[in-house]
User: Fold these one by one.
Assistant:
Number 1:
Amino acid sequence: MKVLADRNVCIGAGMCVMTDDEVFDQDDDGAVLLRRDQVPEDHRQRVREAVNLCPSGALSLSED
Amino acid sequence: MHKFVNPFGMPAYLITRHDDIRSVLADHARFSNRRPPGFLAPVAAAMDIAEQNRFQAGNLLALDPPEHQRLRRLLTTEFTVRRMTQLQPRIVEIVEQHLDAMEAAGSPAELVSAFALPIPSLVICELLGVPYRDREEFQQRTARQLDFAIPVAERLALQRAGRRYMEALVRGARSEPGQDMLGMLVRDHGDELSDDELVGIAGLLLLAGHETTANMLALGTLALLVHPEQLAAVRDDPALAPAAVEELLRYLSIVQTAIPRFTTTEVEIAGTHIPAGELVVLSLPSGNRDTGFVEAPDTLDVTRGAPGHLAFGHGVHHCLGAPLARMEMRIAFPALLRRFPRLALAKPFPDVRFRVFHFIYGVHSLEVRW
C-alpha cells in the first residue's frame, strides 16, 4: 500500500501528523511531507484513518 | 435534510447527517462561501459596499480557494504540530499560574473568569502580539460581537471598534515588527498583505482564539462535573486526555449555529435535488450526534475519542487553530482536575446560565468549589 499527498491541496491542518507521525510530517509552512510513501503493514490502519480524517482531501491511497 | 424558511424569509436546506455535512464542507466548488446578491448577513447589510469589502479582506472564513489558500498558507506555519510542541511549556506555565491564583484565593471560584477565559486569552495574545493589558476591552467585545441577542446596530459598532483597535496594532507592527505572529506576517509577507487584510486576519484570530477554547473549557468542565465517573477517569489517567478532549468536542459541539454555504450549481444531497444559488445550512452539533457516525451519540464517553467529529469543521475551512485548541485543552482539563480533585458545582445545575443565543455555545459563568 502506498500513500499519496497533494501538497497543493493541503491546508496544513496537521491531522495526519497527529494520527501517525512516523509516516507524516509537515514542512515549516505546515504543508504535508511524507516520511515514507510505502506504508508498512503495522501502520495501515492509522494511515487509512489519516486519509479519512484529512480535511482538505490532500491524501489518497494506492494499492501498488 | 429539511427545507425551511429562515427568520429572514430566505428558503434554506438544513443538512443534519454527519456524512452529508462532511461531503458539503469538502466540496467548496459546488458549495461556496460566496454569498449571491441579496443574501447579506444582517450586520453586513447595515454597511455600504466599500466598508463591506474592507471587512471582508483577510476574513478567511468568507473566502473560497484559491484566495483562501493564499492567506491560510501564510498562517499555518504558526499552527504546525511542531510549533505546538514548542508552545507546550509556556501553556503549562500559564495554566499552573491560573491554578495557583485560584488556590490562593480559595474556594469557591467563578471558573470562566478565573480559568476558562484568561488561559486561551493570554495564549492567543502572546502568539498574535496583542497586549494582554487591553484584555478587558477586547474580551468584552469578542463575547458581545457574536451574541445574536444584541441588536445589529450595536454588533456593528463593536465590529468597527474592534477594527480600529486592530488597525492601531497593525500600524505598530508595520513600523516595529515584534517576534509575534503580527510581526512575522509584516516581516515575511508585509508586501503581499494589505493593512485591511492584516486587520482582518488578526481580528479573526483574536476572536476565534477567545470564544472557542474558553467556552470549551468551561462547558467541558461542567459536562465532566455532571458525569462524575467520566471526570474521575480524566483526572486519574493522564493518557486519556487526548481522547477525552475529542469526545468533549464532539459531545458539546460549541459552534451551535448552522454554517451557511451556497450552491454554485444544481446538486443532490441525501436524495434531494437542490437548484443552483440556494442557501444550504449545516448543523455541526447534529452531525456529531448522528448514529451513523458513532453509537449512542448522546452518551458522553471520554474513552471514545472519535477524531472524525465535525467540531472543528471539515474541508478547507477546517479550524486553523485546532492544534492549539487541542493542546490547550489536553493540558488544562487534567491540570484543573488534579489540582482540585474534589471539584464540584457550587450552585445547583439548573442555576447555570447558558449562552443560548450566541454563535458559540457556552456558559455565562460557572461557580465551582473544592
Number 2:
Amino acid sequence: MKIAIPADEMNLDSQVCISFGRAPYYLYFNTDNDKADFIENTAANAPGGAGIQAAQSIIDNKADVLLTPRCGENAAKVIHSSGVRMYKTVPGTLLENIELYKKGSLEPLTDIHPGLHGHR
Amino acid sequence: MKVAVLSGKGGTGKTFVAVNLAYSDKNSVYIDCDVEEPNGHLFFKPEIIQKADVNVKIPVCDEYLCNGCRKCVLFCEFHALAYIGSKLMVFDKICHSCGGCEIVCPQKAISEKDKTIGHYEYGDSDYVKVKTGILNTGETSGIPIIKQLLKDDPYNTGKDIFIDCPPGSSCSVIESIKDADYCVLVAEPSTFGAHNLQMVHELVKLYNKPYGAVLNKCTDGKNPSADYCQEASIPILESIAFDRKLGLLNSEGKIAAQESENYSKLFISLLKKIRMGVEK
C-alpha cells in the first residue's frame, strides 16, 4: 500500500508540511517494502489552483492513502472523487505519522477548510 | 472626460468624492465598479432602466468524446481542471474563461457554457446616469462585470464619466482605471492611510495617468498622507475637514453638494481642478 504525505524536507525525519497544496515535497511511502520516494511539488508556487494540481498528482502517483494535517475544499473534491482515503496527521515527523497510521491511531480527515484562494 | 476615484483602502471616501463630483458635473455618468459592495446608488436612488446578467464562459466536457489525453489539464495555467477516474472535473471558480482547453482538445470534447457571476443595473437620477455592477456572493472576480460597465455605450456618449473604483490596487482596480483620463486618489490622515495612498500612487504612475490627491477627514493633528504627498510631490487637489454633519448626511443617503452650499462650492472647485489636470 502506498501512503502519501506532504513534507517540509526530503527525509523521513522531516516534519509533515502544514499545507497540503503548497508543500514543497510529497513523500510516497510503500508499506510493502518500506521504500520512500520524495517528489517535488510543481504546484507549490502556482498563483492559484495549487491544491487541485497537487491532488491530481497524488492520484496519478497511485497513492492509496493521504496523510495530511489540512486540506482545502477544491483539493478535497478531487481526492474524494478518486477513492483515496484521507487521514489527519498529528504534529511530528513523517515516520512517526506512518507508524501511527499503521497502528490505526490516525483519525479520518473530515474538517475541510474553505481554501485560502489568493490569500497567501 | 473619464475620472477614476480610487484609494488603497476602503472607507476613505471614494464613493463620497465620486458621487459628489458626478452630481456637481450635472452632465455625467456615475459608474460603481466596486462590484463587491456597490453603494453609490443609495445616494442617487436611480430609476432602473436596464438590468441584465453578466455571464462568463466555462468549459463542459463530453465524456463520450473525451479520450483522457489530459492536454486540457496540462494546458490550464490556473489548474482549474483535473482528470480523475476517467472523468474531467471543472473548477469553475478558478477558471478564467480563456477558452484554451477547448482549443487544445484534439477530440473536440470540450465546449463552453454560460455561467452567471452577477448583474448590472443602469438607471437615471435627476442629472446623473447611474451604472451599478453587482457580483454574486462567492464569486472570485468581478472583472467581467467591470468590463461591461465601462464599455462605451449610448449612456456614456457625450458625458463626463466618474468611476468609483473598488478599494485596493489589484487587477479589478487596474481594470477600472485603464481608460481613465485622470485619477483622484482619496486618502485618510493615518499611517495606514498613507501606506495605502503610496500603493495607489505607484499604480497610477505605472499606468502614466495624470493624478491628484483628495485628503479626506482632515483634523488639526498629524496627517501622514499629507506628508507623503509632499514627499512624493503629489498635487493636493483638496483637503476636506472631518465633519460630523457630513457623516450624518452620508448616513441618510444624502448628497452633500446638494444639501450644503459649502460642499457644493467645494466640489465645483474640485471639478475645475480636475478638468485643468486633464487638459494639461
